[in-house]
Design a protein that fits this description.
MvaI/BcnI family restriction endonuclease, 7-stranded mixed β-sheet, Alpha-Beta Plaits, MvaI_BcnI, about 375 residues, 12 helices, alpha+beta, 3-stranded antiparallel β-sheet, MvaI_BcnI_cat
């Protein structure tokens, strides 16, 4: 069960001996003072003694560890209170779904919406529908005669309720996308956070404000548990198949089938039965493969510069000049940016829901650069 995998992940996190981000900064400060080191020298000294590696190798491990700690605090459902603070059930459920690999969107019904049977199909919901090839509002004509009705399901702690979803764009209000789920009042009240999961081209609704998913998952026969497990099985069959093949290949060394920079990738693809081609589509049934000669450096899965036309900083050099630091005789800016915490340069990410943008911030206030969600998605 997914819950078992999560518990295993919790144990792995707790078994590690890395310091927290706050403790690391304190240790670096002490090393600089004790041995009269520069900052980058202190980090190298720490890396050598901690992991017998370089800072460049250890840094991504630490960042992954810190992120796992943050997730662990929220997903440790056996301890609903952490540091005296009651965890938010909706946030806990969202993290649960995310760690299980479930694609979902959420909406919040209003008092007026429940009375008039109207829900706004927000950008988040529309994008979700498009990704799942469920519905495309941009190609739908306005008017009640163009309304589309599909089967839907409302999953409650007491069981499943069959429903219908209406998808339409009215002639009024500039044809803003609308939707409505019949019998929604039996699932949620105004202000609740409701998740939509598309499975086999049908939407399933779960009230994240009223349902504790970690408890429900313990009952394999519950409709919510059945849905999530079926969803995971259907969406991970290819990755499981690939992993089995990779594990089999990893049992013994194999020689490269050609020479040059493309030798490793070509050899792996050949051993997996993938014919050589010039296509830019993912290599293995929708999964992109990356192969290299060494594990000492991170591999880029994709890269995308900011949308400079709408960003305060108009080029990468502007960001370097404003937030970079001296390292020896050079001026550098090597850092990882997260939505969880600010990094040592004061930089962090925030998703702007209203404008559908990823925003890089300095000290959580000053906008540095902006990425459109649609650009990143493409």
């Amino acid at each position: 069960m997914p819950l078992e995998l999560i518990n295993k992940g919790l144990k792995e996190v707790n078994d590690r001996k890395y310091p927290t981000e706050k403790t690391l900064k304190k240790q670096i400060k002490e090393l600089k003072a004790k041995y009269n080191l520069k900052t980058h020298e202190a980090y190298e000294h720490f890396s050598k003694n901690t992991d017998n590696s370089t800072w460049r190798t250890l840094k991504p491990k630490l960042e992954a560890y810190w992120k796992s700690i943050d997730a662990t605090v929220l997903i440790d459902v056996a301890k609903p209170e952490t540091n005296g603070k009651q965890l938010n059930l909706v946030k806990l459920n969202k993290i649960q779904l995310t760690q299980m690999g479930v694609e979902f969107s959420t909406f919040e019904p209003t008092i007026t919406g429940l009375k008039k049977s109207i829900l706004d199909a927000t950008q988040q919901v529309r994008t979700h529908f498009e990704l799942e090839n469920f519905h495309f509002y941009y190609s739908q004509t306005q008017g009640n005669e163009n309304k589309i009705i599909k089967t839907a399901h409302l999953l409650t702690t007491g069981g499943a309720i069959k429903s219908k979803v209406s998808l339409y764009r009215p002639n009024t209000k500039n044809g803003d996308p609308r939707m409505w789920f019949r019998k929604l009042g039996e699932l949620a009240v105004a202000g609740d956070q409701v998740a939509i999961i598309i499975f086999r081209n049908e939407p399933y609704l779960i009230n994240l404000s009223k349902t504790k998913l970690s408890d429900v998952l313990l009952n394999k026969e519950h409709p919510i548990s059945e849905l999530l497990n079926q969803y995971i099985e259907a969406n991970t069959s290819v990755s499981k198949e690939l992993m089995l093949k990779l594990k089999e290949l990893a049992k013994s060394p194999f020689k490269a089938l050609r020479k040059g920079d493309t030798a490793i990738g070509y050899t792996l693809e050949t051993l997996l039965g993938i014919e050589a081609n010039s296509s830019k589509l993912p290599d293995y049934k929708g999964i992109e493969l990356k192969a290299g000669r060494s594990n000492k450096t991170r591999t880029n899965l994709f890269a995308q510069v900011a949308d400079w036309n709408i960003s305060p900083c108009k080029r990468s050099a502007d960001i370097l000049e404003k937030f970079g630091y001296e390292r020896g005789d050079d001026f550098k800016l090597y850092c990882t940016i997260s939505t969880i915490n600010e990094n040592s340069q004061g930089l962090s990410f925030k998703y702007d829901k209203n404008n559908d943008q990823l925003v890089e911030l300095f000290k959580k206030k000053e906008v540095v650069a902006i990425w459109l969600r649609s650009t990143i998605e493409k």
